[in-house]
Specification:
alpha+beta; about 55% strand; 3-stranded antiparallel beta sheet; about 20% helix; 2 helices
C-alpha cells in the first residue's frame, strides 16, 4: 500500500507538469501566431516614364509614373484586400490616381507589382508655386493609399485590417528621375 501512494503522487506530478507545459505552449502560440498586424504598403522603385511640359503654359505638365508597390504581410495568415486607389498629390491637391485591383498576399510574404499613374496639372492652373517648381527643375509630390481587407488565420479566424501608405518624392525634371523617395 505504501508504493501505491507514491505512484499516485508521481502520476499527479506528471499530470501537473503536462498541464503547465501545455499552458506555456498555448500562451506562446497565442502571443506570436495569433497576433494579427496591419500589412505594410510602400513604394519600391518609382520611375518617370514620360514628362511633357506644356508648350502653351509654363505652369502645366503631363507625366507618367511607373511605381513598384510592395504589400508586406507579416501575419501567419493571408491578407485578402479590396480594390483601392493610389492618389498622387501636389501641394495637397490630387494630380493623378491609379487603381489597385483586389488581390491576396500570402502569409509572411511581400507581394510586389507595378502601378502606372498618369499625372496632369490641368486642375492646378494659376498656381504660382507650380510655375516656380517647374522653373527650378524639381517637383515635390506626395502619394496616399489605403488597402482594406481581411487577414485569415487557419481558415477559421478572420480579422479586418488595413494598410496605409503615405510617401513623398521629388521629381528631377531635367533627369526625369525620382529623388528622395520617403514612405511612412
Amino acid at each position: 500500500m505504501k508504493g501505491e501512494g507514491k505512484r499516485n503522487s508521481k502520476c499527479l506530478a506528471y499530470v501537473a507538469a503536462f498541464i503547465v507545459f501545455q499552458t506555456i505552449i498555448i500562451l506562446v502560440f497565442a502571443l506570436t501566431v495569433m497576433k494579427i498586424k496591419s500589412p505594410k504598403v510602400r513604394f519600391g522603385a518609382v520611375a518617370v516614364e514620360n514628362f511633357t511640359p506644356s508648350t502653351t503654359n509654363s505652369s502645366s505638365f503631363d507625366m507618367r509614373l511607373v511605381a513598384q508597390l510592395a504589400i508586406k504581410n507579416t501575419n501567419f495568415g493571408h491578407f485578402k484586400y479590396d480594390s483601392s486607389n493610389i492618389t498622387i498629390l501636389y501641394g495637397g491637391m490630387p494630380v493623378g490616381e491609379a487603381v489597385i485591383a483586389e488581390g491576396r498576399t500570402k502569409a509572411r510574404k511581400t507581394q510586389r507589382f507595378d502601378v502606372t499613374v498618369d499625372i496632369t496639372s490641368d486642375k492646378l492652373s494659376g498656381n504660382t508655386n507650380l510655375t516656380n517648381d517647374i522653373g527650378s527643375g524639381y517637383l515635390r509630390l506626395s502619394s496616399q493609399a489605403k488597402l482594406s481587407g481581411k487577414v485569415q488565420l487557419m481558415k477559421v479566424i478572420k480579422k479586418k485590417k488595413s494598410g496605409e501608405m503615405s510617401c513623398t518624392m521629388t521629381v528631377n525634371l531635367a533627369q526625369r528621375a525620382i529623388q528622395d523617395l520617403k514612405c511612412n
